[in-house]
Amino acid sequence: MGSLDRSKKKIQLWKKALLHFVLCFVTGFFTGFAPPSAVNLFSASAVERSPVVVVVPAVPIKAAEEVAEPAGSTANRSLAEISRSVRVPADNDFDPPPLHEGSNARGAEETTPHPRERLLILVTTVRRGDRFQGAFLRRLAHTLRLVPPPLLWIVVQAREDAAATAAMLRTTGVMYRHLTFKENFTDPEAEADHQRNVALSHVEYHRLTGIVHFAGASNVYDLQFFEDIRDVEAFGTWPVAIVSSNRKRVAVDGPVCNSSKVQGWILKDLSYDSRLLISSTDMSPKPRKLNIFGFAFNSSLLWDPERWGRPTSLPDTSQDSIKFVHEVILEDMTKLKGIPAGCSRIMVWHLDTPSIHSLPFHS
Description:
By secondary structure, the chain is α/β, with parallel strands linked by helices. The chain is built from 7 helices and 13 strands.
């Protein structure tokens, strides 16, 4: 009797093993006929669950324009937002913007990041029809790739010239926003100021909190410069070397400092004297015109002027933000921080090429 029970148990075990084998064989057999897309379905769902950082600001602006994309473009939009023209709309054009980009739904009080974690907002203007700008932009992009994040590069140019630049910007690996405009200008300086106002309006509307610097496409930078300007609380300034190849001139334009305190301003030609010897006659208490590449400021100045000692009852200045910034910086020198300490080192060089006259030498 015992031997009969054991033989029955063995038969049951063999039946179970055989059934398991048949089921595995049938499953594998039919899986081989499944299309590849069915196999990739699981990996695709895993990718969808992974976090992706996308820069997509709200766009309530009626005059928004998109840059023409190259045919067949399949760009990865996670690194960039292809351009929109920005104007300052009327009060009834849209709802009030958020407190700052990235704030939570309850509008919690903005936290102050550590200086080394501050966002750098670098604004670059592109002149219409300038044959050197493509090469200069690519060179500047390679520099910005070496700067530790967070960094946002805002590039502004005329709409008809923007398609080629948009294609190049997508390959840089730098987080950027590409803004365009339709207006025509005969004066290059007026065009550049308009472009800067377009960028500052974008920063103001989206509450992009950080340190703003106007980075010329033809500028050359010491990488330490970008780390130093993160320490700016309100306004920062520094000397700029201006190199003019066609005129064979070199000049230094900027502040003279005692530690980080600005004492005066100089514009000294070094074409025939490589030594930077400054006398009392070289300095002036204020610059005749602030070098656009020689200062940085906290972007909250654009929407919170009272924080920096400006009355909120001023007439609307957002249509000419760059003029407003110049006035605020120059009216109180005590708020200016000289960079680096003593303003004793050149970290920004502006190359004044024959086709770029945005910063001419003063006579």
